[in-house]
Amino acid sequence: MTHQPTETPQFYLTAPAPCPYLPGRAERKVFTHLVGDRAAALNDILTQGGFRRSQNIAYRPACEGCRSCISVRTVVADFKPTASMTRIFRRNEDVVGAATTASPSSEQYSLFRRYLDARHAEGGMADMSVLDYAMMVGDSYVSTSVFEYRFRGPDSGITGRGDGPLIATALTDVLADGLSMVYSFYDPDHSARSLGTFMILDHIRRARKMGLPYVYLGYWVDGSRKMGYKRRFRPQEHLMARGWTRVD
Predict the structure, then answer these.
(1) Residue 20 in contact with residue 27, Cβ under 8 Å?
(2) Domain for residue 25, yes or no?
(3) Which of 11, 148, 193, 222 is the most buried (most CB within 10 A)?
(4) Alpha carbon distance 213, 204 (integer Å)
């Protein structure tokens, strides 16, 4: 594992690579390491500044001549679900999410692989091994939880946990001002349940109970259809040149 001094974090710039969201464009990223005792505080600051976390790296786009990637966070206190979101929440009343420590498991990886093979077979994560997955979940110096979603069981009212096989998972950082959804995936056999939307709604509900003002959804990419869903969770704030700007 690479160790870097945390008092004065060093920032680096990647070489140009094909953009995964907009065909024909190149992407570059600025990044730094999140290690040591101050990693959590640094992650808070950088997330508020538009960075995202992957393992022990914080990064944000630094593409020449392009500003299509926009950091998005939902304003929890003012969020009101649409009629379709309400239907999705009701459709999944039999699903229970439980927070666990950020520890990878074979069950998580099996679900992760099925999700990638069904939804992102050509994506950049398609070749991730079980070791890669373990590092994605466990290689973190910040406050991170894994939310596991299962069907409601006879003892769920007592234990707060579901029963049976894992059907969805979210890797989430707990920040000083919100929950940051790092990555989520679900059982493709249950696509009709809209579990991706359900997990975001569940995180908004959890953030409200925790008294946290935001749920960070990562980047909305103007012009990318697969990122369009993030605009639906309003009101939200977009990080623009002059700071966070509210979008109702």
Answers:
(1) yes
(2) no
(3) 148
(4) 9
Within a domain: residue 41?
A: no
Is residue 245 included in any domain, yes or no?
no
SS3 191: helix
Query: CA 222 to CA 21: how far, in whole Å?
Result: 9
Q: Is the pLDDT of residue 207 over 70?
A: yes
Q: What is the CATH number of the domain that holds 176?
A: 3.40.630.30
pLDDT digits (tens, 9 = 90+) for 129-147: 999 999 999 999 999 999 9
172, 181 Cβ separation under 8 angstroms: yes
> Which value, to the nearest 10 degrees, does the dihedral of the CA atoms of residues 209, 205, 102, 192 take?
160
Q: Does residue 215 sit within a domain?
A: yes
The closest alpha carbon to 54, from 117, 133, 146, belongs to: 133
**Total number of domains constituting the chain:** 1
pLDDT of residue 5 exceeding 60: no
Domain membership of residue 114 as a residue range: 80-219
Structure tokens given for 220: 């909305």
Q: What is the pLDDT of residue 125?
A: 82
CA 217-223-229 angle, to 5 degrees, is 35
Is residue 79 scored above 80 in pLDDT? yes
Please state, rounded to an integer, the average pLDDT across all residues of the chain: 93
3 state DSSP class of 131: helix
pLDDT higher than threshold 70 for residue 7: no
Measured in Å, how far apart are the chain's first and last C-alpha atoms? 43
CA angle 217, 16, 32 (to 5 degrees): 55
